[in-house]
Each structure stands twice: as structure tokens, then as C-alpha cells.
Amino acid sequence: MKKIKAIVFDLDNTLIDFMRMKGKASEAAIKAMVRAGLKVNKKEAWAVLQELFKMHGIEDQKIFDKFLKKTAGSVDIRILAAGVVAYRKAKRRMLKPYPNVRRTLAALSKQYKLVIITDAPKFQAWTRLYDMRLEKYFDFVIAFEDTGVMKLKKMPFKKAFKILKLKPSKILMVGDSISRDVKPAKRLGMHTVLAKYGQFREERGKADYEINDISEILKIV
Questions:
Q1: How far from 157 is each of 87, 128, 153, 202, 206, CA to CA, in Å?
Q2: Nearest-angstrom CA–CA distance, 180 and 157
């Protein structure tokens, strides 16, 4: 694919196993809050937290405040602190790139402009990249704040075209979601790769390429 000049990556569940990290860190937070005195059944607590994530978003920075109000009726700062500290420790321990990510990005960055487009907040996106020592491979990150809309609306992709000064046909999109990554990119004229090793869910639609390991991109481009 000689005409490609840039590659756009989704971040969560494409470069990192975000949902596994989120689950383990959230479990650690619940256990810590129970040890600190929260009177709640762990199974029920997990169900409440999952519902709150659905309501307020997986990136909500005040989710444990909401969780305590829901389960205990008020926020006990001591219990909240226990949960947040446990969450941060587990997050740092679990936040790792998928196999072959660093090696693949190092090779690609020598030939192509590399970009992140994510629905996550920009600060969280950059901190994850720095935590995993991947930040040096990317020219820029486009996050929710940059356009005020999610990838489904296509504006984040259009912003990338403008910054890169490239036509969509010169850009490859790599993501784990048909609806959020593949469909909007294809509609705009980009080439697409579906990362099936991520949190892939069966959806209607098809990418130009499918991969089971990120290193397979090196054979595509």
C-alpha cells in the first residue's frame, strides 16, 4: 500500500487492553472500599458500578463519588480515598500495550505519520501513552475536546485530515470497532483495518483488512 502516508490508530482496545484494565482496577477499588468500611455486597457493588459507567461514561472522573452516593447515601472521604488509591495502583499495574505494539509502532513511525483519534479525554489519552512509553511514536492526538463530538460524527477524522494536510485516501485507520472506527473512516474515503484482537464485537460492516495481531499491519502497508 505505497500510497499511504499516515496511519490513524484508535487507542483503547486497539493499542491497550483498556477494558481488562478498567475491570481489574474497578474491582480493586470496590474491595478497598469494603475493607475501609463500606457496607455493601461486592457482587451488588459491581452491578451498581457497571450501571453507573453506562449512565455517565467509562471515563467519568467522579464515578466513585457517584458510586458511594448510590450505595451508601453519601460520600465518606476516607472510603473514597481507599478506593481511588487502590484503583490507581491496579491501573498502573494493568496498563500495558498489547503484544508487539511497541515494536510495530517503532517500525511504522520511520515511514508514516502516526496519529491517535480517540473518544477519551485528551489528558487521559496522553497519560496512557506516557505510562506505556508510546508517546514518542505519535505526531498528535485528537480527542473528544478537539471537536466536541465522538468519532461516529466523523468530525475528528476531518480534523486529522486538515492537520496532516492529506486526502483520506492517503490515510489508513486502525481500530477495534466497526461502528466507531471502520464505518466513519470508510465513508470518508480512508482505508480501514479492524483489530479483532481488541474488544471486538460482531457488528454489521466490514473493514478492508482484518488483523489478529497488530504486527500484521506491517504486511499490509
A1: 32, 21, 9, 23, 19
A2: 11
Single pTM value for the model:
0.86
Whole-angstrom distance, CA of residue 134 vs CA of residue 170: 23
Q: What is the pLDDT of residues 156-200, one digit of tens each?
A: 999 999 999 999 999 999 999 999 999 999 999 999 999 998 765
Distances (CA, A) of 126 to 53, 65, 112, 132, 139: 21, 24, 20, 10, 12
CATH number of 19-94: 1.10.150.520
Cα separation, 213 vs 217, whole angstroms: 8
Sequence spans of domains, the chain: 6-17+97-220, 19-94
| Alpha carbon distance, N-terminus to C-terminus of the chain | 5
How far from the centroid of its chain's Cα atoms is residue 197's Cα? 14
User: What is the Cα 166 distance to its own chain's centre?
Assistant: 25
Identify the architecture of domain 6-17+97-220 in CATH: 3-Layer(aba) Sandwich (3.40)
**CA separation for the pair 150, 8 (Å, rounded):** 15
**50-78 pLDDT, tens per residue?**
999 999 988 898 999 999 999 999 999 99
